[in-house]
């Protein structure tokens, strides 16, 4: 239960910069930009990969907010899996395990993509992650997790994917609703 709450918080942290306006501005799937950047972060913070990324995309097949496919979306399934295994998993595993070593001792694809990632074709946002209740988050619920998600996970995922981070100024960037659904 704590794991799903923490993973939900991952989405919440991303949502910490999100508002209802953000939800309306950016679809819950897809990427908003097709910018390609190279980043380098160290794993000493537990928040990144020292290999960086020159890949853009959100991981979904929906493409960007303007309807264009991102570089990630254009990859073959095998190349997407390789990218996730070599770029996303090392960075996110380190970040989550630093945040809660006991809860995330066994960090795998299933942590974010659900019980049967192959069956769901790794679709994101994942219906198995706890839906985000932005009103509750704004009231301070899950504050520790929201801080972790907003200060570590959301910016690092945006860097890895070569996207802008979702903010009020950049409502179509990588945000909470790329991984989580929104509670209705």
Give the distance, in angstroms, between the N- and C-terminal Cα atoms: 21 Å
Give the helices and strands as they follow along the chain.
HHHHHHH
Sum up the overall morphology in one term: globular
> How is the main sheet built?
none
Helix content: 40-55%
Low-confidence stretches: 1-68
Secondary-structure-based class equals mainly alpha
Mean pLDDT reading: 72
The fraction of residues in strands falls at under 5%
Helix segment tally: 7
Short overview:
This protein is an all-alpha fold and 184 residues long.
Structure notes:
The chain is an all-alpha fold. It has 7 helices and no strands. The relative contact order is 0.29. Mean pLDDT is 72; it is low at 1-68.
Task: Give descriptors for this structure.
mainly alpha; 7 helices; single chain; 42% helix; 184 residues
Sequence-ordered SSE layout with sheet pairings:
Elements: H1 2-16, H2 20-25, H3 71-74, H4 77-99, H5 109-113, H6 134-138, H7 143-161
């Amino acid at each position: 239960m704590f794991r799903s709450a923490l993973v939900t918080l991952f989405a919440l942290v991303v949502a910490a910069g999100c508002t209802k306006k953000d939800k309306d501005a950016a679809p819950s799937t897809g990427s908003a930009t097709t910018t390609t950047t190279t980043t380098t972060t160290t794993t000493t913070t537990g928040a990144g990969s020292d290999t960086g990324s020159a890949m853009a995309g959100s991981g979904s097949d929906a493409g960007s907010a303007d309807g264009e496919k991102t570089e990630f979306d254009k990859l073959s399934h095998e190349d997407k899996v390789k990218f996730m295994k070599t770029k996303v998993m090392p960075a996110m595993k380190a970040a989550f395990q630093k945040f809660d070593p006991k809860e995330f001792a066994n960090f795998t694809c299933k942590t974010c993509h659900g019980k049967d990632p192959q069956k769901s074709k790794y679709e994101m946002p994942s219906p198995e992650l706890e839906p985000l209740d932005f009103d509750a988050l704004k009231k301070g619920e899950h504050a520790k997790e929201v801080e972790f998600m907003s200060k570590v996970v959301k910016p690092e995922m945006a860097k890895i994917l070569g996207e802008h981070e979702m903010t009020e100024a950049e409502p179509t960037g990588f945000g909470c609703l790329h991984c989580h659904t929104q509670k209705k």
